[in-house]
Amino acid sequence: MSEHSGRDGFVLPPHLRAIHEADYPRFSDAEMARRRAAIEHLLDEAGLDHLVYCGANRFGSAVQWLTGWPVTAEAVGVFTPGKPDTLFIQHVNHVPLARQIAAPAKVAWGGGSSIGGAIAALERRAARDGRIGVVGPMTFEQHDKLAARFGAPENLNRRYTRLRQIKSAEELDWLRIGAALTDRGMLALRDGLRPGLSERALADLVERAYVPLGGSTVIHFIGATAMANSSLAVPPQFVGNRNVERGDAVVAEIAAAFWEHPGQVLRSFAVDAEPTALYRELHAVADAAFDAVAAVLKDGAMPRAVIDAADVIEQAGFTIIDDLLHGYGGGYLPPILGSRSRPSAHIPDEPFRAGMTVVIQPNVVTRDVMAGVQTGEMVLITATGIERIHGVPRGFARV
Q: Residue 181 — φ and ψ, nearest 5°?
């Protein structure tokens, strides 16, 4: 596939470049119709007439999926088959842009109560008691108000989550852009790492690589520790202020998003020194676990096969401190799997399906949780195996 570099030097295939360069990119009418049809089918299966979907503080993927609006402070939408959505937005100064991005939904300021606006919209649509479903992080107050008027709504979050597991071709395009932005963050970390930089400076390296290109930070977990006397097994969720030193291991998990469509990549680096014997072994086991899991993933594979494949971790005398694998894109999605020594909360008895995007991340650590490495990335499951979405080279790089 040919690639094209824009004025910003960001290299993408031409059809992805066109999406990336749009002022406010949109999915096609056909893609949005596909999503609406899927929700209509979900409501029909549940015997419901309307859906209330909500989000707050950039959380609640259904709002973006159905309207294109990435949630800011608060958004509550009403979906009724055959009618345009009504979307209530907080704050009032967010409404003009939401009207532009979320069209053809009818966007209004939620005033003193966005859920109150949604209830009024349902009344205008002659909604009946017991015929309303909900998707998203609804607060107790919102639930109580909705239930007081129409009876307790039905929670459709699990069914909605299952819809989001399989990605359409257009969703994959946007995820590929998110992955490319994420790659730039990880490569900037790799290429800029040197003794004397603080962990805060490392975070700045990462963000400067994709923020000018329209990327937004989902996470950048970065940690540094001396390989000869390690006290860190997993990168912290909040950046510290330790200075990087020669002989350190720097471990990182980075996810940057393009309009709520992220990539995710995990890597480890040895700073101005060769990895110690322990760190070489940790990373060799992590690579072996990644390869073993990747080898069993395909349409129809069962989650238990992934856990079995990762046995190389326990056989080497190590364990993990994060999830071994999780679904991604549209949320932190199932299946969310651990290993034998760090068991899963739930192992679904349902196969992987082609079109799912998952993150393989065998974050191998010592049993005393004093040393560990990061490796892994988001991949696409196909009929016969996996397809790489990221381009960052694998391996334990010396920088």
A: -65, -40
